[in-house]
Amino acid sequence: MTSALEHPIGPTTVDQWLRLDPPPDGSRLELLYGHLHVIPPPTGEHQYATVKLLALLEKAISAAGRTDLYQVPAVGLEISTPWRTGVIPDVVVLCGKPIGASFEAEQVALIVEIWSPGNRRADREDKKSAYAAAGVPCFWEIENGRISAHYLENGRYVREVWATPGNPVTIRRAAPVPVTFDPADLVL
Question: Class assignment of domain 3-186?
C-alpha cells in the first residue's frame, strides 16, 4: 500500500482548486488528497536554483535535438480526480507546448522539487508517491545543492544519482535527455 492510499480524502476537488485565485503574497496553493496546503513563497536561493536548473535543462534538451520537450517553472499539475491532488512543482519538463496553467501527469517527462526548510517531510513523501502513482517517469529532489534523481520502475522511483556540490554528474535514465552538471551550479 502506498502512502497516498493511507490519507483520508478531503472535500476540495481538482476542479475547485483550478478555479481558486493564487495567494497574493506569492505563496503556492496546492491540493493534496482533497486538502488545501499553502506553501510559503520560495526564497531567493530557491528561485536562483530554479533559474539555473531551467537553463541547464534547456541546454541539454537543445543539445539532444528534442523540439518536443519544454522546461517550465511552477505550473499546475493535476494528479487525478479520485485522489483530488493538484500540485505546483518547481520545474517541469513537458512533452508538448506549455499552453495553459495546468497539465495532466501524462504530459510530463520530468518533475523537479527544490525542497525548502518549510517543506514538511510528510508533504514531500505525499508528492513523491503521487507522482509515482500518476506515472511521471522521472523525478528529481534538490535540497541544499544535493540532488537525488529517480526514474520510475514498476510504479516506484529508483534512484539513479545522488550527488553533492563539487561532484559533477550525468543523469541519463532519470531524465528525458542526458543532463550533465555540478550540483554546485545550483547554489549561490
Answer: alpha beta
pLDDT tens digits, 84-124: 889 999 999 999 999 988 999 999 999 999 998 767 777 78
Phi-psi region of 128 (alpha: psi -120 to 50; beta: other; left: phi over 0): alpha
Q: For the chain, what is the radius of gyration of the CA atoms?
A: 16
DSSP state of 90: S
Grid coordinates given for 91: 520545474
The one-letter code for the residue type at 178 is P
The pLDDT value given to residue 6: 56
Residues 113 and 142 sit within 8 Å (Cβ to Cβ): yes
Quick check: 7 pLDDT over 70? Answer: no
Per DSSP, the three-state class of 181 is strand
pTM: 0.90
173 in Cβ contact with 160 (< 8 Å): yes
